[in-house]
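SEVERITY: medium
COMPONENT: batch folding queue
REPORTER: lab tech (J.R.)

DESCRIPTION
The queue accepted two submissions in a row. Attaching both inputs and their returned structure tokens so the on-call engineer can compare them side by side.

ATTACHMENT 1
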Amino acid sequence: MTEADKAKAQLVIVTGLVILYFIFDAPFLLYAAGIIGVLCIAIPVVGDLIVKGWYKIAEVLGAINGRILLSLVFFVILFPIALLSRLGKKNPLALKRESERSVFAERNHRYTAKDLENVW
């Protein structure tokens, strides 16, 4: 990570705390923004540690949020659709054999020029 990237991350942290101060009107957020900003300017090593800690927190939250969001999508959207599908048609993909001889499905269809216009 370059020094410019570290400075951007420090600025984002301080700006985020100031915005949260205006949203929640909690003075400790403004004090925290000021302290972090001064520390990052005065002692660059402390600023680097703050950025590393920030990225570790972001990594953990990203792993947790990914699992939570994917689980919610599965159980709220996909699972009910699968249950409704199982209640509906019995063999929608024709994966089970209807007869013992073959899985070939005969299709009586006469192709026209319209069938070949947009094949994709």
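ATTACHMENT 2
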Amino acid sequence: MKKKGSYGVFLLIFSILFLFSSLYGEENKKEDSSFVASVVKKVSNRYFSVIVPFENNVFEEQFITVTVKVFDKSIDKIVLRTSYNVKHEIDIKEDQDTYCRTLMFFIGENFIKVYAYKNGKKVGKETIKFFNKAFLSKYYKIVPDGYKKEFFHNNIYEQVCDKCHDMSVNEVAGIAFENVKDSNCYECHKNLLSRKYAHAPTVNFVCLPCHNGKVGRNNRKYEGKSKFLYPDPIGEACYKCHKKKRKEWSTKMVKHDPVGAGKCNKCHNPHSSGISKYFLRRSPWRLCTACHADKKYKKSYINLFINKKRAGENIDDKFLKGEFTCVDCHNPHASEERFLLKDSMKTLKDVCISITESGGKW
């Protein structure tokens, strides 16, 4: 009986403490956003903390926002240095304690080093490591041990930014902004427009048709983790706009594997591209040979085409000069012919099969 009574007292005290902490947290969390920093990561120095990127996080885009929370405003400036030694300086303002910069990083393992300076002297430092996943790279499409995906856009972490940014969604379904700067997404994600070619939804900051918070069979484990998840595979979302392509490809006898699996974003960047008006992640030859690696040497093809020409075949000069890519002969999506050959090339035989280790089986 005595043991049971002690347990009851313990529960009563715990309940009172929990209620007090909850009330206190709700009343003060918006006034003192440092609680968010403590949720995100442990502060390693008394001057500032890096809120995002999270330690050992995984990203799928090269544009990543670095957000720093300053606790001691006696410092003069914050300096950011990327893993490839690009430097950015931020002057500290009296009326501001949170600073952010969106920077571009390469694929693979990266870090951002953040320094605090006071009177010209370095007084604080933090280093955050993260991984930028590549959809095609042999080496960087698999996330190494020690890294994990964590999402920023949820009700806890967004409180870091709501003093300066309106974190609500002001997009109206089916209606593009007359001025994209009016989008609440624009200020942080405008760098997506810095590439030469941008996808129409990105140009117009129509984000929700894809970033609808839903998951697919490949990312169900992330359900509920972010307001702006997209379903993986993404194909069904793409076909809502590209209805004609879906109809066209569905009737073809042979479909390229990414098309059949709905993995449009394996080859295409759904936001923008600096390479192609089709938003390709790489130039066509490099894109295709990222998977079909045994077919990457053009010299072998050129020699074969020269021999075919000598044997009397009608070979276009661009094949003799090496001015060709895979899509000159193959349809990258779907075809009625074996090996996805285009109708105009269906009589062309024994090219890839002749010179590659796979024997034409892929």
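NOTES FROM REPORTER
The longest helix spans residues 2-28.
No errors were logged for either attachment.
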